[in-house]
Amino acid sequence: MIFQDLFAYKKSFSLAMRIFEITKSFPKEEIYSLTDQIRRSSRSVPVTIAEAYRKRIYPKHFYSKLTDSDGENSETQVWLDFAFSCKYISNDVYQELVSESIEIGKLINYMLLNPEKFGVKKE
Prior knowledge:
mainly alpha
């Protein structure tokens, strides 16, 4: 298995790409604030999942990277809150993206609670 096979990775990568496409329509004055921030946090989720998987021989590093990924996922939800409140995305898009983010959070939590299923050796 490689990190690209992880369901959490696939879902978070897909969400990051959807956010990238959606943010292309955000106002230009948001380019260095909301647009940049939501792209960075959403992309950081699959990146840190990949890092966690590659560090799975070190249980503490695995756990640390996954909690970082979960934090970035939560940050993405806050930026989605801002995008919706600023009326850059519709309620339907907002609900769909937040729902996907919540599902990703559950997948990350599953990895945290079941590290042995991802090749992490007990200390």
